Amino acid sequence: MKNLLQFLVISSAALLLAQNGAAAQANHPALDAAIAANKPHDLSVWTMFVNADIVVKIVMIGLLLASVATWTILIAKTIELKRARERVVAAIGRLSEARGLSEARLALGGGDRLTQSLLGEATREMKLSSDIIAAPGVKERIAGCYAEIERAQALAIKRGTGLLASVGSTAPFIGLFGTVWGIMNSFIGISKAQTTNLAVVAPGIAEALLATAIGLFAAIPAVLIYNHLARQATAYLELVSNLSGELLRIVSRDLDRAGHAATKIHAAE
Prior knowledge:
mainly alpha; 0% strand
């Protein structure tokens, strides 16, 4: 019985609303006819963009540019990371048989900027510590220099990915701003037209919702690409750490040889 009463109440309310809507439309026949005549028949994406408010257009264009930047960063960083990994892997392979820094320098040849920086720091510290080459702090100082190079390399390889994080976190809200602005204008149009005909509000709401759709279109790939590049950068930095570790082991051999030679000289004296 209770459910039946609720059904009757809801049906009565719906009937009253329908009658009121019909009466409102009957009171504005000329206006509704004008609306029907001017109603856009093409609600394609391009038409909605062209007919959108200037603020909504600016939001859409900004989000599309952000999406283009996202895919550009993906292509550029993928190529950069691929080449950097290949260089580091090749350098590690050439260093695997090197017995000392001199052999390592010959094995690497010209090398790239990273390997030259690592070799240069080791050579410089060995020269500066030539009078105390057998002291235990030489290896630690070289390791400290290598840590600084690795930090600089991490900053360099992650350059540009910050934009992806910004797009992924802000694009939905920017699109939502365009949607709110468009819906606000649509309701202002309803108020000015003084009619309940959906032809007044539907195109504006569709244009406004397009801004949210474009915001999600820009944000979702940005988040996925950012996570993908972050994993690739982490893998590359692991290879850089392996390269610096290989060079540090070579330095350790040279230090041990120098210490052993110094011990022999003292023993001979």
